[in-house]
Amino acid sequence: MARLTIGKWLRHAFAVTVALFMNVALHGQIADVFPDKARYQPGTDAHIYVELKNGGGAPVSGKLRVNVRSLTEVVAEFSRAVTLSAGETRGEGFTWTTRGDHYRGYGVDADFLVGGNTVSSRSSAIDVSQDFIPFPRYGYYTDFHPGQPFERLDWEVDNLCKHHVNVIQYYDWMWTHDRLIPYENGEPVEQYEDFFGSGKTLGNIRRKIQRGHDRGMEAMAYSLLYGDSGNDAGPERIEWASFTGPWKTQAADVRNHIGRIWVMDVSNEGWQSHIFSEFKNAMAELDFDGIHLDNLGGASSYQYNSANVIPEDIAFPSFINDCKGELRAQRPFAKLAHNDVAGGYLGAVAPARTDFYYAEVWGRERFIDIRNLILDAKAAGGRDKAVVLAAYMNYHEFLGENPPEWINEASVRLMNACVAANGAFHLELGDGDRMLTNEFFPIHRPMHDSLKRAMRDHYSFIVRYENFLFFNNQGGVRDGTDEMRISSNTHSLSKDGSAGKIWTVARIWDGEYDSVSLINLHGTDDQWRNVSANPEPQSEIHLKYYMDRKCRRVLVATPDDGLGRPHELPFSEGRDDGGYFVELTVPSLQWWDLLIFDKTARIKTDGWPGDWQGEVPAAIHGMAVNAGEFIYRGDSGDTRSFTGVTTDSDITEVRVTADETYLHFLIRMRDIADESIPAVGMAVDTDQDPHDTGHIWIGDASTPEGSILLADPVQYAERQVMIYSEGGRPRIKLWDGAEWYDPPSGVAAVSVSSEYDCIEASIAKTDLGIFASRQVKLTLASFRSSGNAAGNDATFDSDHHNNDAIDVMGGSAGVSEDSWERDLSDNAIGHHATFLVDSDRVRPVLVFTGHGRHTPAIPAALSTVMVEVETFPREAAGSASVGWRLNGGNWQELPMNHAGESTENGLNDLWRCAIGTFQPGDIVEYHFRSVMPDGTSMLDDNGGVNYRAVIPADGDEDGLPDAWELLHGLSISSAAGDHGAMGDPDRDGVVNLLELAFGGDPGTPDAGILPRAEMIDDRFKIMFNRDPTAGLTVTVQAADQPDGVWQSIARGVDAEPVEAIGEDVKAVEGGSGSYREVEVSVPAGKQRAFMRVKVEP
Q: What pLDDT does 229 receive?
């Protein structure tokens, strides 16, 4: 409500000469610290300036340190050695490239250290946001007169920038209310007098706007939404006017304000078209970023020549919405504000298309009235829509007969604490360092130096903690005062701003932080506008506070200390009938303390999977542990088929991780179209006892007779978990033997996201029976929610009258099968995962896969013996070593080299070590040891019998290497019977020498290893496998008759590959390892119809 004061004073309001400002000397060497902008675009450079002053008579040397902090995390640190001579004043600058995420507040802390001790400190803040909309720290300008020195003009901008004021209302800048910019001969008139006769210049307006833009401050052009300055006789277009009675058409009946402003019909399309055009022209001509609409408060008036009352509660929001559309058509990011005077049309105006809700406060004199106004505005306009209040301090005192000389500091500080603690902003500062005390903005009053400093500290404080008080884009901030359970056995608390108590106000960042403001109203009343006494300082405030999640730490911060830095407070934890609580003692309270209860986890249970970072296995049904997460990769489209099965329950990925409090789960589905459909059952086994008497099933009544069984006793679970939907909300229930129940700690959380097709859940480890590092076996299946509660058949029944499971975690790696074939057909689930739940992550449980081995499999004399082993899963082992001994001698140990992932399946780590060269007949025994990152070690010694590598020798001279004979149970001292080269112990017609040559096993009948001949592509081919390490010569021969002359056409000696001999012969040997594939061929036209393979030791 802009105009209630009139008179000649207004004409000369700007004739007062104002001296340039001087910094107040502050703590020691650091006189000031501030950034160069009120707001920064993400990823741009922030320049931080530190003003230093040595007020002493001797030089001082030390280190200047500047930290940028996100709460307590140091995101940037700078330091510089500095020497100040006696009396010297100078500035130091630092540049920080801001992070890429926006709508974030940071603290800036500058310290001067001498001899390692901090002797001087100052703090400021940085706002990184793409626009001001969530955090409108609103200021104002009223002075645009031609004589204003550029130095003063620039100082006004710079000083508001130091307060982080990021949007400015240009109050009464215009020529007239309906002709905002004067024109002459089609050109703007640079200097003009407004409707009150005050001189103004467009050049100064442009300079302030441009300087503000340079400082990250946007400009809003003030205007009445229905003001027509017209002329003394009446408005220019009387048919656009609003009238004091029905059926009126004369100027004398037009609604008028202070005899100078004709009030137009805000619903009139002609008026709208005219004034919208004026708004757009002002933005184009002067580079305003938006329009601030004002009005004169609610009134009843009539349309031209009509009995129709203008319904302002409808007409105002309609005008706002249409205006926003017009502005955005010209400038896509145009901003719009509207003054809802006294909150008179709050329910209609708050949801309208303004960028924030703005109201002048009239008739709400108590602190609790301010809170209720803020809450009502957020309820109507949306939780995340910012609220700005124009609340004029000491209003009545300054209108009285003996107005005070200065603004009352106590009332300002308490009011600002009230507004910010309840999540809103206060329009109060403008024209450099002046504070509003009246609805006519040029009437402002000076502040004491102490209040000026307190205002700097306050604005830096609300920027530093803006994500805890106002808004963040990671879940938002809401009021939690009514639901808050807080008590004190030392002090009287209130939630309603009662006098003589500590006012407690809670702001909740769900799942992350609770912020509780303590506002000291001891020794004051409950009124905000009047002059107030300073509150009586309080100390040793004991608090008991109930929380929905485990508390990691408690921080306290206050603007009262001039720094606003967070400090950690000790606290204790407990549980009673009310649930989980913390107890702590706040050392002191002067004006406003902010407590921050940190309940964060690395994983946020919000349905957004972006905070999970582990690498998914390459193979379907593969399992891995990396980045502190267990990860299973499922398949797509591999569910069972029965009525009701949808993609909502088709498991494509499962992840599990832990922190000090929670076990976190992420279950991705193929496509969650309906968030009420997917359900998940989990069996959590914490002891892996093969004789376990735990719960032998999974799921809630998931067959008509009961639940699905667990196939192996090592899976039998200490806890069953059901995640399902009941009443349209996701729920978590546990079972430990008697009934389904809510997690007892009361801190479990679950979120289902159709946007990201996933379920996230967090359950306290203690609720799952995990009290220390513990190996866990997890069995998991998906279902369809029935809508019933757990214990009452929470899952949709299969029409096959068997189990209700839809998909299962697990399967053969790389093999695509539906869940029925993989695991469900016998109504028992055998696939499961094993991992170690540690204090802050999930670790792999190290497993040696397959067997230790050496290469070559039968090493030649003096060849290098390479041993290798694989461990599962990838990155489970921090290191590996081989213990070995020669011919029964002393054990030695060598470190093994990590050779990458297994080429076989990509799920294992491969370790290798060359242990030496040896003589014929040597026997090398070896085993393996691997150490996990936490120091836990595992031994692989082949079940208590060390692995052996025997260097080939032939003690019985039968042509069979001793090592091969030992491997296959043949005698190394006798060549008789089945133990010699011509023996055939398995009676398959393949003698031992040929078994050796062609890679056979003399103990397993298999004549298929013998060479075979075929004609392929007009060539005769003979094909066979050979062992290049057997020490044999293999010769391929051909003849045109069995009793004819045999000619050698290819030969391979020992480990040398088989090579062709003669024309038109092709010999190919492929493969690797112990056995090679050999193909030898000749053209079919040659008279060589018979081939054979000759083997010689």
A: 82
**CA distance linking residue 554 with residue 596, whole number of Å:** 6
What does the alpha-carbon distance between residue 315 and residue 391 come to, in Å, rounded to a whole number?
25
Return d(Cα 436, Cα 279) in angstroms, integer: 26
Q: Which pairs with CB-CB distance under 8 Å and at least 24 residues apart come from 919-923?
A: 919/861, 919/862, 919/951, 920/861, 920/951, 920/952, 920/953, 921/950, 921/951, 921/953, 921/955, 921/962, 922/886, 922/887, 922/950, 922/951, 923/886, 923/887, 923/888, 923/948, 923/949, 923/950, 923/951
- Please, are residues 1022 and 998 in contact by the beta-carbon 8 Å criterion? no
Sole residue written with tokens 């000749």: 1082
Which pLDDT score, from 0 to 100, does residue 1085 have? 67
CA dihedral of 775, 781, 782, 784, whole degrees rounded to 10: -120
Rounded Cα distance, 438 and 8, in Å: 17
Q: 141-161 pLDDT, tens per residue?
A: 999 999 888 889 999 999 999
Domain 609-844 has CATH 2.60.40: yes
- 486-598: CATH topology is Immunoglobulin-like (2.60.40)
| pLDDT tens string 403-445 | 898 999 999 999 999 999 999 999 999 998 899 999 999 988 8
Distance between CA 225 and CA 354 in Å, rounded? 13
**Mean pLDDT in residue range 230-258:** 91
CA distance 135 to 40: 13
CA pseudo-torsion sign 404, 409, 412, 418: negative
The three-point CA angle 992-995-996 to 5° equals 90
d(CA 585, CA 543): 6
Domain ranges of the chain: 40-131, 139-255+262-475, 486-598, 609-844, 848-950, 1011-1096
**Phi, psi values for residue 77, rounded to 5°:** -140, 135
Burial track 393-404 (b if 16+ CB lie within 10 A, e otherwise): bbbebbeeeeee
Q: Which residue carries 């190919």 as its tokens?
A: 1068
Task: State the helix-helix crossing angle for 202-214 and 150-162, rounded to 10 degrees.
Answer: 30
The chain-wide mean pLDDT, for the chain, equals: 89
CA distance 179 to 282: 10
pTM value > 0.85: no
- Between strands 493-494 and 553-557, the pairing is unpaired
Distance, in Å, from the CA atom of 228 to the CA atom of 223, rounded to the nearest integer, reads 10
Beta strands in 149-217 (DSSP E): 167-170, 183-184, 187-188, 191-193, 199-201
The domain made up of 1011-1096 is a member of CATH 2.60.40: yes
Average pLDDT over residues 312-320: 98
Secondary structure element (H or E) that encloses residue 411, with its range = helix 409-421
Tokens 């209310």 belong to 177
CATH class of the structural domain 139-255+262-475: alpha beta
Classify 948 as helix, strand or coil: strand
Three-state SS sequence of 957-973: CCCCCHHHHHHCCCCCC
Helix, strand, or coil here: 841? coil
Report whether 743 contacts 663 (CB < 8 A): no
> What pLDDT shows up at residue 907?
67
How far apart (Å, rounded) are the C-alpha atoms in residues 697 and 702?
10
| Those residues with Cβ within 8 angstroms of residue 1077's Cβ, 6 or more apart along the chain or in another chain | 1023, 1025, 1069, 1070, 1071
- Please determine whether the domains at 609-844 and 1011-1096 fall in the same fold group of CATH: yes
- On whether the CB atoms of residues 238 and 216 are closer than 8 A, the answer is no
Question: What is the CATH code of the structural domain delimited by 848-950?
Answer: 2.60.40.10
Q: Which fold has domain 40-131?
A: Immunoglobulin-like (2.60.40)
Answer whether 656's CB lies under 8 Å from 667's CB: no
How many other C-beta atoms can be found within 10 angstroms of the C-beta atom of residue 465? 23
Q: Name 652's Cβ contacts closer than 8 Å, sequence gap at least 6.
A: 633, 634, 635, 636, 668, 669, 670
- From its phi and psi, is residue 562 left (phi > 0), alpha (psi between -120 and 50) or beta? left
